[in-house]
C-alpha cells in the first residue's frame, strides 16, 4: 500500500488535457451505464459548523475504485486552517484491499470539479466562445476558468462577487497567474452581459443568477450547489434553457438546482450521455445551455485512478 | 496524524470489560438521541463478488468521529486472502482533519460486533444464563461467546452449523482457546433445546431459526443479517417474542430481520434505549427476548475512539 501527500499529488496531477481525458472517461462510463454509484453519505457536525461527505463509484472493468472523504469545517479559517480537506482511498476492485491512500487535502476534488466544468463547456458552449463571466471569487472561480482554457480559447474574464475586495484580488490573481484580463462588475447581470460562458461558483442559498441576466447563446455552468439548502440559479433559467444538463439526475434533484424546481416538466440530460454521444448538445449558436454540477463519485474514481497511475510512474 | 496496523491495534484492544464499556457508551449516546448517524453507504462490485460498506456516526461532544470502510470480497479465499477487510479513519470533530488511521483489517469490527451481542445479553438474557447455543461456526461464533462471558457466567456451548466439519473444528477451538465444553448438534432445534442464550451468526438467506426451536426463557441475538437478502429468523420469532429489540430501527427495517416482516405490528425497542434505562427489558424468567443486530456506525465511532486512546497511551 502506498501513501501519497498533497505535494506529491499536486506535482503530478495538473489541469491539463490528460486529466481532462480521465474525468471525461468517467462521465462516458456513467453515460454508458457502466458505473455503480451509490448515493452520497453525508453527516453534519452542527456544533462545530462542520459536515463530512463520502462519495464513491466503481466503473465496471476498472481495476480500482476510490472512496473519497471530504470534511468541510467552516469555522476552520478562524483557527488558521482551510475549511475543506479530505483524502481519497483507492481499493482493488478485485480483492477490496487498500491499494493507495491519497492524502490530497481536497486537491483532487478541486481538479476534478474544475474539469467537470470543462467537460460541460466542451459539449455545450459555442465553439467560438472566448469570454467567461464568473460569479464568485473563490478557488473554483480560478480553476474553472483555467480548465475552460483546455476546451475553448478564453481571452477575457468578467467577475462579480458579493465581496468587491475579493473580486479585485481575483482579478489581480488571474492576470498574474494566467495572463487573463479580468473586469470586475458590480452585478451578476453586468458581468454576464457580454459572456459566452457563465460559471457560478458560490455557496449561495438564494439565486445569484436570473434568467434576464443571460445573453442569447450563452452556456451556464452552475457548480456551487451541493446540498439541499444551496441554490445559484433562478428556476426560470432551468425552465427557459434550450438545453438543460446535470451531472447526475438523482443528485441534482436531491442536492442541486433541480431540488429547487420540483415541478419542472422538461427534458433534462445527463452529462455522461452527452459525452457518449460525442457531439455538442447545442444545435444553434443562439441557444442557451445550462449544466448543473453537484459533484459525482465517478469523477473521484476517475481522477484517483489517474493520479495513482502517474504517481506509480505507470 | 498517526497510522496503526492490525497487530498494534489487536495488542491493545481486547474483548474485555473496558471495551464493552466503550461500545455500551456508544449505544447509550444513541439511546439519548446524542448521535448523528447517517444511512450506510453501500456499493456492490458484482463482477468480483464484492461489496463495500461505509459507516459513520458522530456522538455530540465527543472529540473525534470515525468513518469505517468495510470491503467484503467473497472470492478472496480462493486467492488466499480473507473475505473481510477494511480500516477506520478517525477525524477531529472540531476541524475535520484526519487524526488517526486504523488499518485494523476488520479487527475492530469483529470486536465491536461481538460486544454488541454482549450488550444485548446484558439487558435481555436471564441473569442466571449459563448455556449458549450458537448457529454458525465462523469467527463471530467464537467472539460472541467470548463476549457473552463478560456479562454472564457461560459454562457450556451447543453449536449447529450447515457444515458439520466446521462445527467440529469450532468445538475443538472453543475447548482449546476458551476452555468451554462444546456439543455439536445436527439441527438448530437440538442445539437450542437447553439454551439460555441463542446466537445466530450466519450469512443465511433463509431462516435458520424457527419459533418452535426456542425454549421458554431464552434470549436470542441474531447478528448475521446486514443486507436485504439475508435472513436468520423466521418472522414468527419476531412476532412471538415477549420483548423485541434491534440496534437501530431504520437499519433493521432496511437490512435486518425486520426487513422480512414488513407487516409486523408490535412494539420494537432500540438497544440504546435499553442501555439508557439501565435495567433489563425482561420482566420474567420465562419470557423470550430477541435482539437483531445489523451493526451501527456508533459502535465504530465508539470502538475507534477507545482504540485510539489506548494506542496513544492516554
> What number is the mean pLDDT of chain A?
97
Q: Biggest protein-protein interface?
A: A-B, 44 and 44 residues
Number of domains of chain A: 2
**Biggest sheet details of chain A:** 8 strands, parallel
Subunit organisation of the chains: homodimer
* CATH fold type of the largest domain in chain A: Rossmann fold
Strand composition percent of chain A: 15-25%
Number of helices of chain A: 10
- Report helical residue fraction of chain A: 25-40%
**Dominant shape of chain A:** globular
Instruction: Give the helices and strands of chain A as they follow along the chain.
Output: EHHEEEEEEHEHEHEHEEHEHEHEH
How far apart lie the N and C ends of chain A?
A: 16 Å
Q: What Rg of chain A, in angstroms, do the CA atoms define?
A: 18 Å
- Uncertain regions spanning at least 5 consecutive residues of chain A: none
Strand order of the largest sheet of chain A: 10-9-8-11-12-15-13-14
GO cellular component, one term (chains A, B): cytoplasm
InterPro entries (chains A, B): NAD(P)-bd_dom_sf, ODC_Mu_crystall, ODC_N
Pfam families (chains A, B): OCD_Mu_crystall
Protein name (chains A, B): Cyclodeaminase
Amino acid at each position: 500500500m502506498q501513501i501519497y501527500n498533497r505535494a506529491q499529488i499536486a506535482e503530478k496531477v495538473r489541469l491539463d488535457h490528460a486529466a481532462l481525458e480521465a474525468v471525461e472517461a468517467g462521465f462516458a462510463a456513467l453515460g454508458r451505464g457502466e458505473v455503480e454509484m451509490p448515493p452520497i453519505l453525508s453527516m453534519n457536525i452542527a456544533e462545530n459548523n462542520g459536515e463530512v461527505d463520502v462519495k464513491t463509484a466503481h466503473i465496471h472493468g476498472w481495476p480500482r475504485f476510490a472512496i473519497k472523504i471530504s470534511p468541510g469545517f467552516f469555522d476552520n479559517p478562524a483557527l488558521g486552517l482551510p475549511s475543506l480537506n479530505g483524502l481519497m482511498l483507492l481499493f482493488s476492485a478485485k480483492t477490496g484491499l487498500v491499494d493507495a491512500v491519497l492524502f490530497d487535502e481536497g486537491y483532487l476534488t478541486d481538479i476534478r470539479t474544475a474539469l467537470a466544468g470543462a467537460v460541460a463547456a466542451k459539449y455545450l458552449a459555442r465553439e467560438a466562445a472566448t469570454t467567461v463571466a464568473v460569479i464568485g471569487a473563490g478557488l473554483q472561480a480560478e480553476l474553472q476558468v483555467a480548465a475552460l482554457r483546455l476546451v475553448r480559447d478564453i481571452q477575457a474574464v468578467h467577475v462579480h462577487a458579493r465581496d468587491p475586495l475579493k473580486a479585485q484580488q481575483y482579478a489581480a490573481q488571474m492576470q498574474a497567474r494566467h495572463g487573463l484580463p479580468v473586469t470586475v462588475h458590480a452585478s451578476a447581470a453586468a458581468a454576464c452581459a457580454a459572456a459566452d460562458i457563465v460559471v457560478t461558483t458560490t455557496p449561495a442559498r438564494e439565486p445569484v443568477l436570473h434568467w434576464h441576466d443571460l445573453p442569447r447563446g450563452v452556456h451556464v455552468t452552475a457548480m456551487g450547489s451541493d446540498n439541499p439548502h444551496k441554490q445559484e440559479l433562478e428556476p426560470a433559467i432551468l425552465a427557459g434553457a434550450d438545453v438543460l444538463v446535470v451531472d447526475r439526475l438523482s443528485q441534482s434533484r436531491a442536492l442541486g438546482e433541480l431540488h429547487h424546481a420540483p415541478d419542472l416538466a422538461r427534458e433534462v440530460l445527463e452529462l455522461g450521455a452527452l459525452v457518449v454521444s460525442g457531439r455538442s448538445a447545442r444545435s444553434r449558436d443562439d441557444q442557451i445551455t445550462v449544466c448543473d454540477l453537484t459533484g459525482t463519485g465517478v469523477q473521484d474514481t476517475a481522477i484517483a485512478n489517474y493520479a495513482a497511475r502517474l504517481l506509480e510512474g505507470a
